[in-house]
Amino acid sequence: MQRLRGVRPVKLTTNERWDLVDAIAERTVTVGTYRQTIGDILGELTVKPATGIPVAVAVLYAFWSIFGSFAGTLVTDGFMVRLFDDHWLPWLQAAWPGPDSLLYYLAVGDPLAETCFEAFGMLTSGLFVAIGVVLPAVLIFYLMMTLLEDSGYLPRLAVLMDTVLHRIGLHGYAIIPAILGLGCNVPAVTATRILETRKQRFMMMTLLAIFIPCGAQLGVMRDVIPDLVGPVMLYLICGFGIFGFVLDRIIPGENPEILIDVPPYHWPAWENVARKLWTRTKGFLKEAVPFVLFGVLLVNLLYLAGVIGALADLFEPLFVTWFGVPKETVGPLIAAFLRKDLAVAQLSTIAMTPYQMITSVVLISIYFPCVATFVMMLREGWKQMLAAVGVLFAVVFVYGGLIHAAGILMGVA
Amino acid sequence: MNEPIDTGTTVLMVGNPNVGKSALFNRLTGANAVVSNYPGTTVDYTEGTLIEAHRTCTIIDVPGTYSLTPRDAAEEVAVRLLGEYPGAVVLLVLDATRIERGLYLALEVIERGVPCIIALNMTDAAHDKHISVDAAEMERVLGIPVIETTAISGEGVKQLAGMIRNAKAADISAISGRLNGDGAAEEMVALRSGCSGCGVCGR
Amino acid sequence: MRKKLSELAFGETGVVTEILASGRELNCMGLRKGKGLKMVTKQPIKGPVVVLIGEVEIAMGIRMAEQVTVETG
Q: What ipTM was assigned to the predicted interfaces of this complex?
């Protein structure tokens, strides 16, 4: 028997290849009469602007309210807060020996604290933020995100968003890294590869690292500053638009139009949903928990060594005069490099006005991406990463000042 | 008789975006590649191992691409991988509901003269849409094994795993020859090692 | 009647007669000369259009849709 392995390569022209494709398809494919299914009708309704835009708003609103009510109200407030503040904290404060020792300070924190947020020890605030607040948040977030991904809704959302996003140099498909980023920025950075040109990828990676808060941060925000989440998100979305527009004008490169498949709707297979949920949650537990604990440790050590005090004095003019926030926020900003959720939790214990709180949470969001995101950006290329960091500093400085100015104009800062 | 492809073979899974490559990959290797219903879920490659009949092969889940002229960075990964593994078997994953564009990419790969095998995936969805694809005829025309699969439910996956070692390179001129009807009987190659004695190959 | 793909109305069908050079990548998505298609939706203010070709739905930018000529009726 003759073997055909190692056949000589040939190169057909595009037309020859298509002719061959047509000939093969004609031989092998028969298409019967096709009836529209409910899925197809739903598919059309969710992509037509008159019906699709209200649906998109409803979907995103439902997303947020389920996120808030399940993760926040039900699990965190209803169960975790009681568990940690009423049982874990008093027990640990009593059981851990030597309230004056360094080890006590690092592990438990303030011996007189009444909530796990205030104590700020590794085993109190660290565990509470990671397990009590962020874990339920990312769990429910990932569940809903997986359902959106698997149903086939995202490409339709991309089509609807394209009209807006194309104006700032991206295209609708940039919504995919954006939504993934709302869960965690780390996979979102890699997901920017679905964009076509270097310009678009760079823009999206930068905007993502700056303006998209991750699920962990959202979870903490919803818990500690529930009334201020709205304004914070508004500032972030406006920032995304403004700086996207500016970057589009500055950065050379092409800005191709969207060209994507819109797949039919599917029922998500529960097996796949469960598998993804498990993989992502496991990833969170493995990556985030150690970082949160280490973050608490590092911040406490830096406090003890006087580093944070010195930095706060150094940056006081910038923080107080330019951004209009208390100089104490320099501590959370350091923690933010490790974990943004931790930083927001830490901010909530500093006394300040609501507007200062909004400003400082926005600053935390837009300032340096967390270590893990940083590493992913580095993997996409160090030149791009350096450029992104450059953009980032400019944005923090300009936008922080703008927000302060807006506050002064509104008479609240 | 066909000698089996060497053990330690690398298998590249190539196909259009959103045809179910990752789902099939998970089925074949028991790995945990992320599967979603939107084109572009896989932007980087994932490696897994398939052990079939005491042979081990490395399977690589390649990001989906519409052609070998890449449009975005994920597609570039696909083209780069094909270049990096010149000796690899290519498992072409075609979506039975969108067969033409899949065939276009398949031909591009076949033209390179590498051993190929085709998984005709999403046959369940095709059935729902009243599209039927004649896998046997496609196998005859292309001269490479074609196996129907439904990655979501796992149908046909075992058979596919067993057929990987029968992957073969196809000759474009022979394909056009068979399409034009002058495919002489001696040109026919027995694709399955366990020949059922259909008689075409004259054995 | 011949018109640009971008000019098709909702639900209108046509057959592709010509694709200009810059619209070549549409080929790989299944949009080719001689193929029938149907306009599913057009987004407002020069947003993208969604067309159905056979069983495949694809979304493309409006300028790309202008590269395609279709024969209607």
A: 0.91
